[in-house]
Amino acid sequence: MQGLRLVTVDGKVMDLDADHDGDVFRAAQVSIGALGFVTRVRMRTRPLYRLKERSWVQPTEEVLETFDDEVHRYRHFEMFPLTHSKYAIVQAIEETDEPIHNPPIPADQPDAFDDLMRSLQSVPVVARQPIIDTAVAAIEPEPPVVDSSYKVLANIRNYRFNEMEYSVPLEAGAACLREILKKIDDDAIDVVFPLEYRYIAGDDLMLSMFSGGPRASISIHRDARFDYKPYFDAIEPIFWKHGGRPHWGKVHSLGYRQLKSLYPALDDFRAIRAALDPDGRLINAHLAQLLDVTT
After folding, report:
1. What is the pTM of this model?
2. Cα 231 to Cα 19: distance, rounded to the nearest angstrom
3. Rounded-to-integer distance, Cα 206 and Cα 27, Å
4. Cα separation of 221 and 122, whole Å?
5. CA distance 29 to 186
6. Which tens digits make up the pLDDT trace of 83-141?
7. What phi and psi values does residue 191 have, to the nearest 5 degrees?
8. C-beta contacts of 68-74 below 8 A and 24+ residues apart
9. What domains lie within the chain, and their CATH numbers?
10. How far apart are CA 120 and CA 204, in angstroms?
């Protein structure tokens, strides 16, 4: 991001960029709705380019063993560890000059993986692993997809779900993921949604999950038809144990006291917020908890 326009609650229009408004610009890029209204964003763009996407199934432990190397081979590299299983779905994306190859999926073509996940809802949790492992081990790698970047990176989500996502230091990523998967197995938690595991580059923004350097991002999900709270409550302390920072737009339970130790610039952000909105007109109950502001 090169610049943005922020309109404060008193109507002041602020055109911000790093060269002239360093701290306020660093605060406004991840401002959780507490500084004002972002009405314009200036981004650095590049000419249209193509991406090649490959996906396959592989044992989770094998992926973790080489994960640090693979993230440097590809533009994007991530995996989706399956719950109650030894396997993960792996996705690797790289830039390419190859011709576009992205045939549409027939509307009547069944989704074998989706059908498997649905069928597991009626299978007792303790009986799922052999079923899942046998089924997914037989899945053949899909043909690579080549298309314009915005088409490859876009996802279709057919499920409604709730999600919790934390970022942890890179050196804690694998251990945190393993502990989450073990907790799901040990407690026989009834969840069929895969997890997500990926690395994301660092930045210098005040409230960014990735401020200060790259981190490992881990997500858990719960089908929206079911109560997510017992599952998320069981897993969230594992994220805390490994120094996790919560995704601001997803479910978490932290307040100012815990967040202050995770975000070194949190009090700097609070000072900027107080200057731009001294009467707290943008503060709701959720922001009051995050920023320790009395409403």
Report:
1. 0.92
2. 45
3. 5
4. 19
5. 40
6. 999 999 999 999 999 999 998 877 666 666 677 777 777 889 998 999 999 988 888 88
7. -145, 135
8. 68/170, 71/199
9. 3-45+254-291 (no CATH), 50-246 (3.40.462.10)
10. 43
Distance (Å, rounded) from C-alpha 200 to C-alpha 45?
19
Identify whether the C-beta of residue 135 lies closer than 8 Å to the C-beta of residue 116: yes
**Count of positions (residues) in the chain:** 295
Determine the Cα–Cα distance for residues 292 and 263; give it in Å rounded to an integer. 14
Give the residue from 279, 277, 263, 278 showing the smallest Cα distance to 290: 263
Q: Where are the alpha helices (DSSP H) in the chain?
A: 22-28, 60-73, 112-119, 128-137, 149-153, 170-186, 229-241, 256-262, 266-276, 285-291
CB 162 within 8 A of CB 224: yes
Q: What is the phi-psi region of residue 207: left when phi exceeds 0, alpha when psi lies from -120 to 50, beta otherwise? A: alpha
